Recover the amino acids of this structure.
DNA sequence: GTTCATTCTTAACAAATATCAACGAAATCC
DNA sequence: GGATTTCGTTGATATTTGTTAAGAATGAAC
């Protein structure tokens, strides 16, 4: 049931003991989502960090009626509106299931209790936060330092599988342009090669 | 000598014991910078997290010969090219002293040793990482959801002191526009009020 | 297999912002 | 306190990207 998530934890904190793992396991619960369902709705507090056991979800802002995607979570990834989760304030972003999704949730109170009781989970929490910081920072760097065209070719190289799974207009906003403009970028790229 | 930084730590981890504090204190060292000096140079690995004991520093990318400021650290703030510090890879950003700066450094190896030895520092590291994530996420949200004008007025309200201390062209890139454009934004604002 | 909705592409036009260049003001340095 | 550099403003123009609208392609539903 929780094999995949256990692998995830032991990769970050290899010395996790059996009792520690069991304490965590007791806190985990499974939620099922259908395509189009929301794991998190903007405006509501994000109550969980969710491990994606299967399926695909996206994280996005809804601004002036337009979506701006900021990330995608696949099987084996963690996802959360982490700022909301940490601050207990309403989420600015939505998390939506792009396919059927099975998520393994860990709630805020349980997480704080694990932190208090087991130093190993402090370490896990630190490493997760560091990881999320690095991801966000890399995305920022790319948005600042690269052109839309470079960000798109980058994506082809590093996230080829997402190009298959995600509609192009979602990738467009992730890359930081309109769908129309991404279409132009693609045409230009295919002409020049 | 280390009063300010001790306050900083005990605010994040109130239960810090005397031996724990002393273990940290042994790792701290002070560096002095003159205006224009670099605390961190892009291309080199960032070796420290630095507490600003006095003065003002800025964090910025240098892209195509142009600066893009991403943050400012004042007295009482921590600063670091944190992605480089965590990953031990060359920094993408510079940290530059905008005034004389006195910084209290904590090195990577010492930090890892503190993490290993004292759970309290795991907790500190977690909270710092969470904080940095939230800061970065808020900046992202502002860049996505607000106009340059809104970001500027926001800054007036929340960071009034920085407007005094930092040249306008650095604020411009922080806000995400050219200095010329910020100048026009300001003119428009003063006309309309 | 036809219909309907969704997605992608294309083109013409519009808007926001950048670039370039010049000038004036302010601060800094001998 | 004059000279020099740095900084901020302004205007003309250029570029990038967004907007709107239409149609083509794709895929799902019946």
């Amino acid at each position: 049931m929780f094999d995949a998530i256990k692998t995830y934890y032991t990769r970050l904190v290899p010395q996790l003991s059996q009792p520690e793992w069991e304490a965590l396991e007791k806190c985990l619960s499974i939620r099922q989502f259908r395509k189009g369902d929301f794991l998190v709705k903007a405006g509501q507090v994000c109550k969980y960090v969710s491990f994606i056991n299967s399926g695909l979800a996206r994280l996005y802002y809804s601004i002036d009626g337009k979506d701006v995607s900021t990330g995608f979570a696949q099987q084996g990834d963690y996802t959360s509106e982490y700022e909301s989760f940490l601050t207990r304030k309403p989420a600015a972003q939505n998390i939506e299931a792009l396919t059927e999704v099975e998520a393994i949730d860990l709630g805020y109170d349980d997480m704080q209790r694990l932190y208090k009781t087991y130093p190993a989970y402090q370490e896990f929490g630190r490493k997760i936060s560091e990881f999320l910081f690095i991801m966000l920072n890399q995305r920022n760097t790319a948005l600042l330092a690269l052109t839309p065209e470079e960000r798109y070719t980058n994506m082809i190289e590093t996230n080829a599988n997402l190009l298959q799974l995600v509609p192009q207009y979602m990738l467009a906003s992730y890359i930081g342009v309109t769908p129309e403009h991404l279409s132009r970028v693609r045409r230009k790229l295919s002409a020049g090669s």
Q: What stands out?
A: Residues 167-169, 179-180, 182-184, 186-187 of chain B lie near DNA strand D (CB under 10 Å from a C1').
